Every structure is written in structure tokens, then in C-alpha cells.
Amino acid sequence: MKTLGEKIKSIRKLNKLNQTGFSSTIGISQGTLSELEKDKYKPSLETVIALN
Question: How does pLDDT run across 3-15, given as a tens digit for each residue?
Fold first, then answer.
């Protein structure tokens, strides 16, 4: 089973975006996205909603 970070990374790659472009689209910094993808940070509810 994929971790949340792996799922977020999969969504980003499916949309053919780099971290900078994807983070801008969902309204977070590139650094925060990097931490999310590494499962070092748990996303806020707002971030989870933005992923949809």
C-alpha cells in the first residue's frame, strides 16, 4: 500500500508537473510539497482538498 506521500507524488507525476508547478497549483511552497512527498509532514485539510 502506498503512503500518503507516495500518492501525492503519483498525482503530481500523473499531471506531468514538477514540484514547483504542482506546489503553486495547490497553494503550498515547494519545500512543503517535498516534505509531504517524503512523509515528513502531514498535510492540512485544506491541502488535501486542494489535491482533488
Answer: 999 999 999 999 9
